[in-house]
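User: I'll paste a sequence; please echo it back and then give the predicted structure.

Assistant: Echoing your sequence first, then the prediction.
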Amino acid sequence: MTALLKFGTKNGKTRTLLVLYILHSLGKSPKSGYDLLKEIRTVTGGSWVPSKGSLYPLLHQLEDEELIAVHATGNRKRSLYERTKKGEEMLHTITEQGKEHHRKMILYKDLILAIFGTGIVSPRKLLFEIKVATEMISSEHERETVAILERCLTDLKELTK
């Protein structure tokens, strides 16, 4: 798996999923590059972790663009990165665009299923239908919905053993 998923910004610049995750993570708390690598390893279950050779140049680029700021701490001058206001605004813009794309996907769900669905009943088609259905469930039924989905996930995990 790579972080090649790309997202556009208002100024036409594209951003990878890795950039978005870095900005998201640094919005929670300042972190070192090593902390980010450990966190990504945890979040992906170790299935994908960027190399130091790709992460650190990316952090420097984000700093140059004033999307993050760096601070040296401690005796060894460990660099801690934090998201700037400009980085927060860019992340917000892209996540809002993502929500709009999701709304469009729901509108075009039947066309998408015709293209990407394989057969009458496929896991992909069912997952898409579940996603659409959960979007329409009212907040009063949220706990019940979560319980149903947790049971489903438990059953699916049993199939992988």
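Helices lie at 17-28, 33-43, 52-64, 85-107, 109-116, 123-136, 142-159. The first helix runs from residue 17 to 28.
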